[in-house]
Amino acid sequence: MQKLGVAVLGATGAVGQRFIQLLENHPWFYVAEVIGSSRSAGQPYGEITNWVLDGSVPKSVEHLIVKPLDGHFDSPLVFSALPKEAAETREVELAVDGHIVCTNASVNRMEEDFPLLLPEVNFNHLKLIDVQREKRGWKTGAVVANSNCTAMPVVMALEPLKQFGITKIIVVSAQAVSGAGYPGVASLDILDNMIPYVSGDEQKLETETLRMLGSFNGTKVDWLDAKLSASCNRVPVVDGHLVNISVELTANPGLDEIITTWTNFRAPDAVANLPSAPKHPLYYLPQIDRPQSRRDRNAGNGMSTSIGRLRECPILGYKFVALSHNTIRGAAGCSILNAELIASHGYIDTFQPKTALSAI
After folding, report:
1. Which is the CATH superfamily of the domain at 151-325?
2. Is 334 a catalytic residue?
3. Among the options 99, 241, 325, 345, which is catalytic?
4. pTM over 0.70, yes/no
5. Which of 20, 60, 156, 338 sees the fewest Cβ atoms within 10 Å?
6. Is 149 one of the annotated active-site residues of the chain?
7. Residue 359, exposed/middle/buried by CB under 10 A (0-12, 13-18, 19+)?
């Protein structure tokens, strides 16, 4: 199968680098175009990029000349790691021009006709592409988003519990510094410290979570009918967002029943065989002090969510801890999985992967 060339917007930044790292040796896609700021444009990617991830710039992209954001791109599939100011108009412009944009940016996530995807949870929200195209007159273009990185472990952990009737949720996060981009939080602010504020994230957690856990009714998403309160904190950890979750369930299941529900959770067939999908989306860890950021963030190659410490909550009924890798599962990795889902359902006219699936 011939691979599809893709473009990465914001390629020199930390999330852009994660896209490039994860796309190296991808079975379906290869990086054909890298796009950066006006300061980077016109220079070889390997020379202009301050590589902040482990290892070094992949040889397959180091020779690529960085293109300006307002330039012409040939790739039908575009991954966006743009800051929200740049993403707001450029992503839509690219969709108008016929590109499919898989974005990690927050600015367009809550547009009602833009899919906000976490494939194991809401793969059928992909049908919003049809609504989007009809509404906006786009023939081949689309914008598809992944959520806030802290919402990822919350949604993954709560999806299997929907069968028990979720009514109230309280989330308290401990978010890694990489969630703030590079160079992140100043060392004198974060070392020996915990900051009880992450700009904008509490509102995103309280809205995006309920939207992703909602159901697609054919024209729009009906949000989960529950109340959610979030408090977000920045902690001196490099990678891995940990969340403490309390939840009220109407069915009052036993703790063992909940653990079994998590352990048996699997991705739907439309997702399970995609290249980036983890074999086990969820892991329940029985140790009293797990999950831990350093020890558990790379579960499932960084695409799985680790859960632990399930116990009774005297206020809402149940409480537990969940952890995901924020720049893999919570950013670039999820966008790539979204793109695989898009391709497998025939939304990219010029590319049909071997793992093609029938319509949702």
Report:
1. Dihydrodipicolinate Reductase; domain 2 (3.30.360.10)
2. no
3. 241
4. yes
5. 60
6. yes
7. exposed
Question: Both tokens of residue 31?
Answer: 């990086």
Q: What angle (nearest 5°) sits at the alpha carbon of residue 90, between those of residues 86 and 94?
A: 155
User: Rounded to whole angstroms, how far apart are CA atoms 265 and 248?
Assistant: 20
Does the bond joining 275 to the residue before it have cis omega, within 30 degrees of 0? Answer: no
The active-site residue out of 99, 102, 125, 149 is 149
Given pLDDT bands bounded at 50, 70 and 90, which one contains residue 38? confident
Q: What average pLDDT does the chain have?
A: 96
19-23, 105-109, 184-188, range with greatest mean pLDDT = 19-23
- DSSP category for residue 177: G
Q: Return d(Cα 250, Cα 217) in angstroms, integer.
A: 24
Asked if 5 contacts 33 with a C-beta cutoff of 8 angstroms, the reply is: yes
Tell me which of 3.10.20.90, 3.40.50.300, 3.40.50.720, 3.40.50.970 is the CATH number of domain 4-148+332-344. 3.40.50.720
* E strand or H helix at 228: strand 227-231
293-309 mean pLDDT:
98
